[in-house]
Amino acid sequence: MDQVPLRGPNVLVKHGEPLLALGMAAALRQQPDLDVRMDRVEASDLPHDDADVILTDYLDGLKLAAGQRCPKTLALRHPKILVVTANEREQEVRTAMEHGVHGYLLLSSPVDELVAGVRTLLAGSRYICIPVARRMADSLVRERLTARESEVLQLLVDGRCNKSIANQLGIAIGTVKHHVKAVMGKLEASSRTHAVSIASERGLAGAAAPRQFRTSARSPHDAQALAT
Fold it and tell me: Whole-model pTM?
């Protein structure tokens, strides 16, 4: 009587980029002990309890991780989540790991690292690809911004002057200058523009808010001009 072969670890490839998903599945199927399958259904529509590892994109990875942390599902068995993405900025990686993602790979990672990431998660450990790990290691030696400094930095990114920042936050202009100096020191920036550039590179602030016409005007004539 023929024996039924034992099923190997189940790896589910569920990525928003179809061609990338096909490539990852093909690469992993070269590993004879892995049971690899694909899924194009949204994460919220299909349970994945039978998977041991899920390869997914950044946004779906966050959704899956959030679902695993739901009080109703905490006691259930959950697959490990390996995000494969182009997002390499410090804050994006930190957000993913803090939300419960187990592994993080860049799209530029070689196939060997993809396999290593999957096997590391199967072994019960976390995995971060080498370039991201180096960047995160560098971030550990930097002094983190306070909540207020982060607010000031975001307003700098939005192109606000000290007076505008003071009005927005309800603080004195002198206090704003103090926070700006602290932000520049922690980011090792030589200027406000340099601080904005570093914030963008590291993902420490959102994109600049779109400029809009002000609802107030300097004179009745200006107000009429804006209204027409």
Answer: 0.67
